[in-house]
Amino acid sequence: MKPILAITMGDPAGIGPEITVRALNRKETYEKCRPIVCGDAAIMEQATQLLGLDLTIHAVDSVAEASFEYGTIDVLDMHCVDLDTFEFGKVQPQCGNAAFQYIRKAIDLAMADEVDGTVTAPLNKEALNLAGHHYDGHTEIYATFTHTKKYAMMLADENIRVIHVSTHVPLRKACDLVKKQRVIECAELIDDACRQFGIEQPLIGIAGLNPHASENGMFGYEEAQEIIPAIEELRQRGFHVDGPVPPDSVFAKARCGKYDGVVAMYHDQGHIPLKVCAFQWDKATGKMESASGVNITLGLPIIRVSVDHGTAFDVAGKGIANDSAMTLSIDYATRMAIYRRAKMF
In 3-state terms, the chain is what percent helix, strand and coil (to 5)? Predict the structure, then answer.
């Protein structure tokens, strides 16, 4: 049986509804999985009309009621949005709350094994906090409600797959968080993720923290004291790792296929190269044409894959949002769900 995926609609005022509808208008989506949207049926209907697509919105109260048929979008209708006050492209507390409730529902379904994985459309952090839900984003919400203490963010686009030793902390603090055990933990997580994507024997590149990976101690000590000991232990345990690789070359090597995954030492070290590759900008208009990267939370007891872009309020409601990242997210979640099911049996 094809895996069931719960897809959250994201912030209703953003491009989440549009990219979800576009992705579910693709016949190949239904050929590999059974999708059900956690959201508001009325907003999904609005997005379908906006895009001029001949799709039926099927509002349901449970996964058991879903039809999973191409041409029909099953929506767990949560009635979170008041259409009389709703506006596209605006920060609204009701939309922040809606996005939060969709996520909670998807998590609950996955934890109860009613769905095999979850895929998330973007939320707006300001709206989320205005609604009284004080989280940095999806990752922290998932960690809280799955009771997960050890987790990490992985970004992926084509050959580049990167996990981060630290993410949303000041750069000064990020350097202090480069510790042997955390490097080992991240390498273990990305190795397991690569295997879920079908890579049987992943080679993981471990980035250095300092320029030239410290040049044998000339530019810092973190490599010698924390990163190299982590690499040595990983090798002793049978992991295929390389490093510390200078940060200015590790991603070029990953892009050409040398590494199946990369352990980055902090947020921007990993995010910048991936987004340079995954985000396509139109020079003439100065606007982003497409974004194909995905964000996967590793270490959770359930599958969570997300688009690696924001709500794009500036284009929301205009019918021009690109669904490439959503389509790729669904593909990654499907592969992970199939792998996990195979391991169970």
Answer: 40, 20, 40
Using alpha carbons, list the distances in angstroms from residue 37 to 1, 109, 231, 318, 331.
19, 12, 42, 21, 16
One-letter amino acid of 157: D
Contacting residues for 153 by C-beta, under 8 A, at least 6 apart: 139, 163, 164, 167, 295, 296, 297, 298
Nearest partner of 47 among 78, 69, 73, 29, judged by Cα = 73
Number of H helices, E strands in the chain: 13, 14
Question: Residue 142 has which token pair?
Answer: 């998932």
Where does residue 298 fall: left (phi above 0), alpha (psi -120 to 50 degrees), or beta otherwise?
beta
Contact of 51 with 24, CB cutoff 8 Å: no
DSSP string, 314-337: TTTTTT----HHHHHHHHHHHHHH
Is there a contact between 20 and 9 (Cβ–Cβ < 8 Å)? yes
- Which residues, in sequence order, are bridge partners of residue 162? 155, 262
Rounded mean pLDDT for each run of 10 residues along the chain, 345 residues in total:
96 96 97 98 96 97 97 97 94 97 98 97 95 91 94 88 92 96 96 90 97 90 96 98 96 95 96 85 68 86 93 91 92 92 75
Return the HEC string of 187-234.
HHHHHHHHHHCCCCCCCEEEECCCHHHHCCCCCCCHHHHHHHHHHHHH
Report d(CA 296, CA 309) in Å as an integer. 13
With contact defined as beta carbons under 8 Å apart, do 230 and 185 qualify? no
The confidence score (pLDDT) of residue 90 equals: 95
Element containing residue 245 per DSSP (H, E): strand 241-245
Task: Give the number of other Cβ atoms within 10 Å of residue 345's Cβ.
Answer: 4
**What is the C-alpha separation between 7 and 16, in angstroms, rounded?**
10
